[in-house]
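User: I'm new to structure prediction. If I give you an amino acid sequence, what do you actually give back? Let's try with this one:
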Amino acid sequence: MRQHDLSFANFVLRFGPDEVLLDYVEEIVLPAFLNEEHIRTYGDTEFRFYNTKLRRLGTHDGDPVLGVTGHFVKDMKLRRQQIFVESRGLVANTAEIESAPSSFFILILNNHRLLYFAETAAAPTLESFGATAEQFLRAEWHRYLRERLEHENVTRRGVERITTKQLRQRIPTPVLEVVRVAGKDAITDSIGRFGKITQLRFKLIEPNDETDAAEAVSALESSLRPTEPTRLEVVVSGPKGLNKAEVERAVGEVSEGQNTEIVVDGEDKEGLKMKADNNEFALSLPIEDAPKEDPELADALFKEYEKLAGEAKVKGLNAIDKVKQKVRQLVQRI
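Assistant: Good question. You get back a string of structure tokens that encode the predicted 3D arrangement of the chain. For your 334 residues, that looks like this:
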């Protein structure tokens, strides 16, 4: 991801089969982002959220739009072992410098869309963001279970005490999937590089509370038949080659649900093996002269999202009544 590029993803967080992000937004989700004491360590590198805020982004059809904004920081040390000197060639020369590249993010609570903006060169990846967020979510889940267990057992005097195992069955471990949003131009470019496509693999991620969940399932089932596959399951394959035009159309249609991991396998035009996935299909938008201050940057990025939604290039802000009601309640926290 290049510096000053804005990309988009779907932040799919579930607590077991029945509960999603907003069911525990105050108890678990917001603390995972707003508690800046959380640090994820990977080797000599530390990942953290910085200057995170619950922010009102605007309104949609008279309802408030809320998001968590902040910086995702990769705090690391760059180590040098050698340099090149014109007159001597490679010369041993060790040095160390601290570096903290970062990305700015907006997690829109109304529809769980993630806006991810590379602030610097070597900004941390979206995959690192997902791994870090999931670790912090699980840390807050453990804290919440401890507090909930203590509270419930204090109030259950004379009644059999509840166990940690029983509470975990009621509130399962949070599982996070961060799925990149595809762009039509990127899909066309990626599919065009194939000489032959032999297989499509689709993994449908069970979505959050959204109005398009049934549509995503329907698209996955109905849009693939024109590709002329030899079998139609989760894996769509045709060893002699699938219809490329229909593959492009199907990938575009299925990706509109923004809850699907997609992998295309085949060969390039030289006959070498080739693969494309959500990373290659990802929608990315360069942002010129991005504001330096967080409130102005959040406004600018959200306006870009609204523009793309108005052009039907990404899913808009339509939400079910349950979500709207929860967001109205959260407004009181600002």
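You can read the tokens as a compact description of the fold. Here is one thing that stands out. Residues 5-178+285-333 form one domain.
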